[in-house]
């Protein structure tokens, strides 16, 4: 692996657009660090298929310093890797330092630690802490459990892996065939971490109980008309869960009856719903990456209805990556509007913007 660390501020915009830059490959995921001391740090990943007699999948992992107030988007560090399908920061914990996990095309999971520069200057860089090839198939998606001790991984052959995440190693605890086709979505239940949700190109949405031998809690086969792309738990409601699908619908689920969840409502967003990110503090608002239809901010109301409150169409390619910047909770101004990072695939574009709507 090679890396570089240029210190420069990238293109600044005006109005709701804060800044933008072009990445070195096809952009597919962006993630702001959820740890309050590092809320300025944004990670972005790429996946580029090099076709030919011997096709290869290359990628990169970049971190940026984002300051929306100053229209600043500064590239801090980049690492060349295998093609990356998904990245996730470790969740906030009482003593946990920020870790960034990547799921890549080589069947590997790698975990990087966010380190401070040692030359006395400001800034951070990524240092690989551990990595492991866990499957002969590609790793497509991942999620940390709430205590950052386990990682769930979805694979291109439809299987799922549960890894224990130690200080310097990853170990496969369980691995089983969960779906018939590519498994694009996996998510731990933040309120019941023994439950893991999965979604796949086979149009099925499932839940697995990890206690003892993993068992199937439910297997919904009828709600989604096309493949399931993403799953997100509502942070303030233990019974509400969201799914996104190629069929262009965001669905809201009530999982109080875990063996038979209820699809409360759905909303068509005009493009395949590839990514869903709940707002950090306004719990009825989510950000969605809608593939062929840009990005949408959606309000999921208490009366089980949903409405689009704002759209963003400044990308000209597949809308894949999206995330909210979190504030420093100890000094957070609740009236402050949160910055958003979005990225699109073939045009390799990363954009930082601030919603116009007073959410």
Automatic annotation (TrEMBL):
The UniProt record lists the keyword Methyltransferase: yes
Record GO biological process: methylation; protein histidyl modification to diphthamide
Keyword terms of this UniProt record: Hydrolase, Methyltransferase, Repeat, Transferase, WD repeat
One Pfam family linked to the record: WD40
InterPro entries: Diphthine_MTase (IPR052415), WD40/YVTN_repeat-like_dom_sf (IPR015943), WD40_repeat_CS (IPR019775), WD40_repeat_dom_sf (IPR036322), WD40_rpt (IPR001680)
Reactions listed under catalytic activity: diphthine methyl ester-[translation elongation factor 2] + H2O = diphthine-[translation elongation factor 2] + methanol + H(+)
WD repeat segments: 221-263
Pathway field: Protein modification; peptidyl-diphthamide biosynthesis
EC number: 3.1.1.97
GO CC annotation, single: cytoplasm
GO molecular function, one term: diphthine methylesterase activity
Keyword Hydrolase in record: yes
UniProt family annotation: Belongs to the DPH7 family.
Protein name listed in UniProt: methylated diphthine methylhydrolase
Record organism: Cucurbita moschata
């Amino acid at each position: 692996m090679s890396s570089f660390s240029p210190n420069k501020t990238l293109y600044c915009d005006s109005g709701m657009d804060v800044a933008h830059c072009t990445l070195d490959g096809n952009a597919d995921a962006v993630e702001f660090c959820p740890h309050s001391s590092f809320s300025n740090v944004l990670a972005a990943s790429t996946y580029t298929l090099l076709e030919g007699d011997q096709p290869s999948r290359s990628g990169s992992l970049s971190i940026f310093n984002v300051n929306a107030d100053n229209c600043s988007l500064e590239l801090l560090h980049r690492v060349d890797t295998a093609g990356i399908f998904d990245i996730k920061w470790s969740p906030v914990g009482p003593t946990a330092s920020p870790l960034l996990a990547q799921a890549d095309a080589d069947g590997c999971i790698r975990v990087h630690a966010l380190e401070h520069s040692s030359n006395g200057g400001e800034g951070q860089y990524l240092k690989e802490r551990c990595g492991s090839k866990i499957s002969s198939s590609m790793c497509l998606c991942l999620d940390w459990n709430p205590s950052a001790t386990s990682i769930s991984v979805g694979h291109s052959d439809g299987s799922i892996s549960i890894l224990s995440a130690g200080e310097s190693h990853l170990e496969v605890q369980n691995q089983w065939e969960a779906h018939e086709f590519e498994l694009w979505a996996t998510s731990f239940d933040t309120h019941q971490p023994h439950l893991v949700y999965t979604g796949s190109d086979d149009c099925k949405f499932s839940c697995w109980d990890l206690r003892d031998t993993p068992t199937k809690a439910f297997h919904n086969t009828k709600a989604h008309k096309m493949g399931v792309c993403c799953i997100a738990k509502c942070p303030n409601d233990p019974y509400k869960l969201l799914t996104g699908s190629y069929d262009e619908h965001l669905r809201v689920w009530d999982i109080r009856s875990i063996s038979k969840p209820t699809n409360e409502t759905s909303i068509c967003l005009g493009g395949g719903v590839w990514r869903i990110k709940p707002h950090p503090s306004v719990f009825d608002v989510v950000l969605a990456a809608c593939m062929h239809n840009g990005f949408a901010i959606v309000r999921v109301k208490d009366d089980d209805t949903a409405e689009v409150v704002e759209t963003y169409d400044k990308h000209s390619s597949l809308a894949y990556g999206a995330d909210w910047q979190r504030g420093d909770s100890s000094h957070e101004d609740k009236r402050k509007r949160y910055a958003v990072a979005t990225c699109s695939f073939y045009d390799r574009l990363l954009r930082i913007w601030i919603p116009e709507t007073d959410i």
